[in-house]
Amino acid sequence: MKKILNILVVFTLVFFYSCEQNADFDTDDQLTGTALLGGGMVDVRNDSEGKLLGVPSSQDFATATVAIAESILNIEMFLLSGGMDVVNYDITKSINSGNDVVVASNATLPLSLSYSTTEEFINGLGISASDLRIGDVITFRTKMTHSDGRVSYSGPNDGTYKITISCSSNLAGTYNLTMISGNGYNINFPNEVISEKGIGLYKTESTYAWAVGSIAPDQGFDFQDICGALSVPEQGLAQGYYSNTVVGTEVGSVDSSTGNLQLFYNVDFASGGVDCVGTYIKL
After folding, report:
1. What is the pLDDT of residues 65-83, one digit of tens each?
2. Residue 162: which region, alpha, beta or left (left: phi > 0; alpha: psi -120 to 50)?
3. How confident is the model at residue 212, as a pLDDT?
4. 105, 145 in Cβ contact below 8 A?
5. How many CA atoms lie within 13 A of 35 on its CB side?
6. pLDDT above 90 covers what percent of the chain?
7. Mean pLDDT: which of 39-43, 61-65, 122-126 is highest?
8. CA 173/CA 162 separation, integer angstroms
9. Residue 201 CB neighbour total at 10 angstroms
10. Which three-class secondary structure state does DSSP give residue 118?
């Protein structure tokens, strides 16, 4: 194994905004408001959160209805600079780039919005919960009304927040793991803990033949759950502590009736890669 020395390099980026440089337009060709135009530079608070997670009625996501299990929205738009010529701010929402609906309004920023039900998400959009599909995108953006009546909108990366309807995922827990590798290892880890790192993103405790505490500092690997399809993104061994590559070799699966998992991945060594199959029995 080859240990990587991580060097943090910080780049400071300075942006100069002008009419030509700020090329974010809405569907009516209205320029995103900038400080130079009397508009406002708007952003979304880092701790904003939103999710619509559910269980599709089938794997045909284009037609499958979705039983929403989690509905959360807590966002806040705030002013970075400018705003001298803005007389009103709105938060609008739309689904799949459709028509905007105003859902919050104030003469100044910050402006907040909170939802806890599916009905709040779809209210005013002209759809019902049965119309929602996996992959639908609900977009919240900031609308600015100027003193002369002009209207401008936030761009896709400033003052805009998007939520994609996704499958719910609940794989965190303790498992009985059997790891079988292509070079003959057949190892049992009786209390393998899988922890949640984010929406649909998880981390194991072990990789290949390395149990807890066997290599520093953390011998687990990350994997993703997208509607029951499990994948292992390319990553460094031991959460990047070593330069050996860990990467998925085929799509794994979740048994919806038992909660058991199967993961397929490869660990790269100087002498060649080793394929591994992990079968995780839910305890």
Report:
1. 999 999 999 999 999 888 8
2. beta
3. 84
4. no
5. 9
6. 71
7. 122-126
8. 29
9. 14
10. helix
Task: Tell me which DSSP letter residue 109 carries.
Answer: S
Mapping DSSP to helix (H, G, I), strand (E, B) and coil, where does residue 238 land?
Answer: helix
Type of residue at 4: I
End-to-end CA distance of the chain: 33
Q: Measured between alpha carbons, how far is 161 from 84 in angstroms, rounded to an integer?
A: 24
Going by pLDDT thresholds of 50, 70 and 90, the confidence category of residue 211 is confident
Pairing of strands 166-167, 49-56: parallel
Smallest CA-to-CA distance from 30 within 17, 44, 19, 41 is with 19
Handedness of CA 69, 74, 97, 160 (dihedral sign): negative
pTM for the predicted model, two decimal places: 0.68
Residue with token string 């939520």: 163
What phi, psi does 160 have (nearest 5°)? -130, 140
Beta bridge partners of 71: 52
